[in-house]
Amino acid sequence: MIEQLSQSWLIARREAHSFLVSPFSYAIAGLFLLVNGIFFFLFVNELRGDFDEVVALFFSFWNFWLLALFIPPLLTMRLVADEFRLGTIEMLMSAPASDAAVITGKYLASMFFTALLWAPTLLFFAIANLFGASFDWGIVLSGYLGAMLVYGLFNAIGVMVSALAVEPAMSAFSAIVIELILFFFMLLPYWVQTDWVKSVSNRYSIYQIMSEWLLKGVVDSAHLLFLASSIWILLFLATRSLELRRWR
Amino acid sequence: MIEVHNLSKIYGDKAAVRDVSFRIGAGEIVGFLGPNGAGKTTTIRMLTGYMPPTSGAASVAGFDVFSQGNEVRTRLGYLPENVPLYPDMRVEEFLKFRAAQKRVPGASRSSRIDFVVDRCGLTDVRKRVIGTLSRGYRQRVGLADALVADPPVLILDEPTSGFDPLQRVELRQLILSMGAEGKTTILFSSHILSEVQAVSQRLLVIAGGRLVADGRTDELIRKYGEASIVVEAEAKAEDLQSMLAAVPGVRSVDPMDGRPGYSPVAAGVVRCAVHAEPGSDPRSAIIELCAKRSVRLREVAYHPAPLELVFARMVTGGEGAAVERVSSELKAEGAMA
What is the CATH classification number for the domain harbouring B286? Predict the structure, then answer.
């Protein structure tokens, strides 16, 4: 167990290094910060003085969900698919690393890069604060927690799809399609207003969890448990598909 | 050190490897020979635990490759075919990563990396990004990776495929020197017999997914290699031909006149190519017979079978269209009589 954790850690470090030397990552980071920066500026400018609403919108408006739709699939697309395309999986696994260690390491690397993407946005709040904005920092914090959970789930989808895909581009495309289907179900309660749809979405829709709970400062352990187990299941499936793919 | 029992890998209704068994003792250097697509890589992938067999069992260093895969992999240095490497890493970073992955203790890691960098001739490119290296250098990086944990068992899949002749010699010397130390068991695959012959005393030959030969390299070459003997004598062609054909150990006699590329000898003199039975050398019998019949001999020259032909015979099990094609090609090239 300890052995496999250290394998994951090594693989995560290698992937993180690979993110950091790739120009593509910087293009993604640039796009991410540009879109978020513009929207943050607009929110602060338009919503004069209503800083709670700035925080709520920053983590739930188009900027947030559109980026969440595209960035995780692009970050994760090559993680496993490229190992097969380059044949490096055979080399990688000739060291004592299990399938689970490989998937965990890759996923950790995607989360590391996600954290790196989000970190500079803290500056937005800090700078606005300098110019006299006052935020409820608890809500800002739970907004970031929500962002990590959303990206955590979507990165896990990306890793799973990458473990199945032949080409990175195919992986990104499939992940985006899967997320679009998820979005459709998340928006369902706004069209179909029956009680059971509402109660299911209240508990399991990540959109609801984000805007109705986390951005109101409520962190519910049931939600955390639900998301953590979804991520676990996705990574488990990724591990199985890596194993099966190796065997062919 | 490596034991394989009735290993098979079946894809759908096609068997890539069928019922292969062999044992390799500690310190042996064994060549794994076969044409492309014979099942070499599939067998090796099962040995390294990368893919499970459909049936059969294998163990490396006493550990079962499937149930104790991680134990096996810590004792195994493996160079996969085509040497897959991460193109965005520097040579030294890559070797550090691999040494850590293979549990080389932190204290000896950098000295171990220095050692393999030196041994594989990577000193000049140590800081270079792997993606910018030539094929030969990438092959060396792969080899350094295989050696970095000082494994007792080394499996190299087509290790010379990206090398120029000079690098081939270097690799050969590296393998031979490791063999001389006797600490490392080496299995390496190739489809070039001369390469295998240069470093290994023992040969496993695989064709069509089956192990068709397993034995000492020189014995196998003797068994499958039919030597040819060029006889030049002052006689009539038909007389010489029928006389030589009756010598024990001679399989067939071919007149050489009229062959493409053949330069005619003096009038009244004929040249024949005598093909010996595998493993026999009828030269003295030919000389004695000529002396008895008062045929004046001008030349009796022995030509060992070209290894290409030996290879073709090994993998086809003797005769066949492929063997005929190879031998007529070699004759046309002047590589055999």
Answer: 3.30.70.1710
